[in-house]
Structures are given as C-alpha cells and as structure tokens.
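Hi everyone,

Forwarding the result from last night's run.
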Amino acid sequence: MTPIKISAALCVAALAVPLPSHALNILLTNDDGLTSNLRALQSALLAAGHDVLISVPCQNQSGKGAAVSFLTPVTPLPKACRGNAAPAGAPGIGRVSGLTDAYYVDGTPVMATMYGLDVLAPQRWAKAPDLVLSGPNEGQNLGDVVISSGTVSNAQFALARGLQAIALSADTNTTDNDTLSAEVAQLTVRLLTRLQSQKPKSGLLPEGVALNVNIPKFTAGASGALDWKVSRFGNFNSFDVRFVTDLGADPVAAAYGLGNVHFPGVTIVPHTTADATARTDARSEALLSLLGHVTITPMQGGYELPKLTGEIFGLRLKQLFEKPRDKRD
C-alpha cells in the first residue's frame, strides 16, 4: 500500500475555520458501551444534520483490540449491559434503552462494528455508511498501545472494508461527565465539518487512510482553546503496559482499588513529559497529547508495508525463498 503524504499545514488550515457541511450517513461505534460520550456525540451529530446509527458492545470492552468470537452464538444477556442499555435476560443483540437508532451487541467492539455494517446499515441505507466513527473513548489511545485498542481496531476493521473511518479518544475525565462529553462532541463535529471542507471526491479522507484522533485532558469550558496538531504514532507512549505477579503490590493497581487483590495481572505505568528522552519524535502523538494538543494521526490499514519498502524487501525474500528448485539449499 502506498503511504499517503498529507501536508501538516493543510490539515491544520482545514481545522482553522468552521465551514458548512453536508449530511453524512454515520455508523457510530465504540469499545466502551453506553457512555456519556456516546450520548453526547449522537446528539451533536444529529443536530449537525447527520444520519446516525449506533452499534456498541453491551459491556465495556476496552483493551480487546480486534478480537472476534467466531462461530459463537450471541445468547441472552447473563447480566445487564453497561449504563442499563439492556437488562439481564434480554436478547444478546437489541435496542439500547433510552436512545433512538442505537443497538448493543453482547460481544467485542469489532463484533458490534460488524453488526452495524452487515445488518443495520443495509437495513437503513441499503448501502455502507459514509463514515465509521469509533468513540469517543474514555481514555486516549496513543502510540503503539493502539494495537490493543478496540476503538482503533473498529476504525481499522472499517478501513479494511474500504470505508472511511476515524477513531476518536478523549481523556478518562470524560467518564460520566455530561459537560465534558458535550465539549468533546462539539470538537468532533468541528473536525468532521472541516474535513468536509477539503474532502476529495472519494470522501472525507484519501483512499486507504483513516485517522486516529486524541483529545487531551481539559477543564470544562476550555476545549475551544485547544490547539490541533497533525502527528504520528511515533516512539513515545503515554504509558507502559506491564505484567506483574502481584497486583496488590502495584501502586497503580492499588490506586484503582486492587490493593487487597494479590493475584497476577496487567498494570499500566503512566508517563509524564519528563519521561521523554532526546530520541523522542517531536511529532509523536503521545508527547503532543501530554503537551495539551488535539492530535490527528493519519494511519493506513493493518500491517501493510509502504509500497516501495515492500517491493524492495519482497525482491530480497524472493531471492531467498523462490530460487529455482535445482539451486535451493
């Protein structure tokens, strides 16, 4: 896949002045289930004139990445969905209580996205959505941790289907905070409006490109002053993920109420800007986020190499493994 060169100046300029947009058919999904961020974004998108379908996991599925439960029946709910989206005993797939055009799936984030693409979108629009918007996540997805992100995996799955996709994440302080969630929603609408002002004939984004957008921590009323920066995944992460033999002895786990849980498990080690070293890429999204910027990272699909790199290394591999049979070792 040929990498798409996107001018940082062009992207920043496109985010500078609000412009009118036209209506989009949007599939809204996430990996957190029914959240204040989801409610606020649906409301803001509808107010902006877009047509929105929601398909989200029944439970919080953060960290599930691109997991899918193949050939596993989706049976009635063993417990209520997050946010009382549906009660225990309800079907494994159904309407979210209290929201219009919103559905839950008792499965992984990608399964919820698949349900939206394979069932809901054809029923509603008789075609695929114009855009798959995944999020806003309750917590940023920055650096190489995105490989385990259900939020980003939803966008990657849509990209693999040839669809336009944006993964959107905010800070954990937006959890159950209607005020902050509403501001995140308005930032998202602004992002879409400005992308539409520059959109090519193929859609909001170049073919084969999705976006990973992260909104930093902000206080109520301060979102309008945030700067937007075009970034890259880079070599600096906002936190490390570590496996420990005793969660109860881990200070981060203890801060989350696991001080008396003396079992093995995975913990996180948050970073600060002071952790950045001389080798840190100045455009790394994690560093820019820590500095208080909204980061916009273009990404290509999956594990495809840039075309030139793939062709050069492919020739080398052919020499190693595709020699004439009588000349092989």
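The longest strand covers residues 131-138.

Cheers,
N.
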